[in-house]
Specification:
single chain; about 280 residues; mainly alpha; Helix Hairpins; 2 domains; 5 helices; about 90% helix; rod-shaped
């Protein structure tokens, strides 16, 4: 019986250790698949982020370009007004000179000069806006990152492929975990059963032929083996042996009591020990 429980215990722990080895191998593959998937995911997310960032940068530039174009258009109109006013003033100055009206000619000439300065200032503002817009466009090109659509699609496919592989390995690892937990529980129960039977066998082997002590030990032993009876049919044999021990000890106890009673009677009758049968 004890040898059988010992073998069951050893087999249970061996099965558990083998399951742990399988789990370790599956975990290694699982971790590798996760690392590759994580790298692929990060690369794909980096490309998506680069596209979104470039989109944001170009949206800001386009907004600046529209605002600048509006200002330039307004300045062009003002420049055209100043240019026409300049031309009109110079024409009037020329006409006044032809009419020998020097005072008017000088005044119109000054007006033409003033309009020309305003026109040139406006044109300089237009040029400055154009240069600023050109510089902004150049900086936008530097900041923005071009992502090849085919490379983006390849990165996405790679990420999805390894995500699927990782999920498969994750499921395998979860099953391996569950198997290890189950086998560990079985091994603990087998160990516990073996220890109980070992202790019960130890108690049975230590019984000495003393009637009263034997009866006390037997009662405890009987309760222990009755409990074990539900787990292992082989305990029946040991229980039968204990029943034999009980009968033998009862017989010796009765004999011992009869002998004590006889000696007590002979002592009372005054019969010497040498004359007793």
């Amino acid at each position: 019986m004890q040898e059988n429980s010992y073998n069951l215990k050893e087999e249970a722990w061996t099965a558990f250790k083998e399951a742990m080895s399988r789990k370790a191998a599956i975990t290694t593959i699982h971790d590798l698949a996760y690392n590759i998937y994580n790298d692929a995911r990060l690369e794909y997310e980096r490309m998506i982020q680069a596209i979104e960032e470039s989109k944001r940068i170009w949206e800001e530039f386009n907004q600046l370009s529209e605002e600048t174009d509006t200002k330039i258009s307004e300045l062009f109109q003002l420049s055209a007004v100043e240019h026409r006013a300049m031309c009109d003033a110079y024409a009037k100055s020329k006409e006044a000179r032809n009419e020998k009206k020097s005072f008017l000619a000088e005044r119109y000439s000054q007006e033409g000069f003033d309009h020309r300065e305003k026109r040139d200032e406006i044109n300089e503002q237009i040029s400055e806006l154009k240069r600023a817009l050109y510089e902004a466009k150049r900086n936008t090109k530097k900041k923005s990152q071009y992502v090849n659509p085919e490379e983006l699609e390849d990165a996405k496919e790679l990420m999805e492929h390894w995500r699927e592989k990782f999920n498969i390995e994750k499921e395998k690892m979860q099953k391996a975990k569950a198997e290890c937990n189950e086998l560990h529980e079985k091994a603990l129960k087998a160990q516990e059963k073996y220890e109980r039977e070992k202790e019960a066998r130890k108690v049975a082997n230590n019984i000495v032929p003393q009637p009263l002590k034997a009866m006390s030990l037997y009662e405890g032993l009987r309760e222990e083996y009755v409990a074990l009876l539900e787990e292992d049919a082989e305990i029946m044999q040991t229980l039968k042996e204990c029943n034999k021990v009980e009968k033998r000890f009862r017989k010796e106890s009765d004999k011992f009591r009869r002998k004590i009673k006889k000696n007590w009677s002979l002592d009372k009758a005054g019969i010497n020990w040498a004359d007793r049968a």
